[in-house]
Amino acid sequence: MLFSKSADLPTADTALPGRDQPLTTDEVHFVSGRPLKGPHPEGFQSAVFGMGCFWGVERVFWQLPGVWVTSVGYAGGITPNPTYEEVCTGRTGHTEAVEVVFNPEEITYDDLLKAFWENHDPTQGMRQGGDTGTQYRSAIYYADDAQKAAAEASRDAYAAALKRVGMGPITTEIAPRPTYYFAEAYHQGYLAKNPEGYCGIGGTGVACPVGIGVDA
C-alpha cells in the first residue's frame, strides 16, 4: 500500500471519469455478519473518518463496544464509484475512508473522535507515515451540525495537546459528509480476512481530552 504520487487534489477537469454503477462489495461484515449497507437498527447513527490506510482504520473501530458495523470506502473526491486502482493514482480526489455505524446509547460520537485522533497522526497532510498521497489524508466528514461542532471542538482540544509536546498543526479536513462509495469486497474486513496483512496506522502517543477513554 505504499505509493508515491502528487500531493495535489484533482479538479473536475483533471479527475478520472469513473462510472455510474457501484462496485461489487460484501453484503455483510466478515466479523459481525451484519449488513454493510443496512438496514441498521432504529436510532443508530453513522460517522465517516479518513486516517490513513483503511485496512487498519476499520479494525480500530470494529473492535469498539457499541459499534454495530463498519465498512471501508472512498469519500471526499470527485470521481463517481472509483476503483481502488483509480484512487491510488491520486486522480479521483478521494481519501480512504471508514463508515462507522454505532449505537449512541453505548458509545458516543466523542468516543469515536477520541479513537480517531489517538490512532493516527493528524499533522501529516497528504500522507500517513510511509503511505503518501491524497488518499491517505486525515478527514472527518460530519453528518449534521452536532457532529460538526463536536469534530471542531475535539480538533481544537487535540491541537492544544499536540502543541504542548511540540508537534505541528493539525491538517485534518473537516467537511460535510460527501457521497460514500463502498470499496471492493476484498478490502472489507481486510485484517480479519488477512490477519498478517499490512496495517500502516499509528498514533502520536498523545491522549485526546474528549470521550471516555475507549481502548482501540
Can you describe this structure?
The chain has 216 residues and is an alpha+beta fold. Helices cover 22% and strands 18% of the residues. It is built from 5 helices and 8 strands. The chain has helices at 54-62, 84-88, 109-118, 145-164, 190-193, and strands spanning 45-51, 67-75, 95-102, 127-128, 131-132, 138-142, 173-176, 181-182. The strands form 2 sheets. It has a 6-stranded mixed sheet with strand order 7-6-1-3-2-8, with helices on one face. Strands 4-5 form a two-stranded antiparallel sheet. Helix 3 runs parallel beside helix 4 (145-164). The chain starts with 44 loop residues before the first strand and ends in a 23-residue tail after the last helix.
The H/E string reads EHEHEHEEEHEEH
How many strands in all? 8
Content of β-strand: 15-25%
User: How would you state the average pLDDT, rounded?
Assistant: 95
Shape from CA axes?
globular
By secondary-structure content and strand pairing, the structural class works out as alpha+beta
Largest sheet: 6 strands, mixed
Can you give the helix content as a percent range? 10-25%
What value does the Rg take, in angstroms? 16 Å
The largest sheet has its strands arranged as 7-6-1-3-2-8
What is the count of helical runs? Answer: 5
Residue windows where pLDDT falls under 50 for at least 5 positions = none
Distance between the termini: 22 Å
List the helices and strands and how they pair.
Blueprint: E1 45-51, H1 54-62, E2 67-75, H2 84-88, E3 95-102, H3 109-118, E4 127-128, E5 131-132, E6 138-142, H4 145-164, E7 173-176, E8 181-182, H5 190-193
Parallel strand pairs: 6-7
Antiparallel strand pairs: 1-3, 1-6, 2-3, 2-8, 4-5
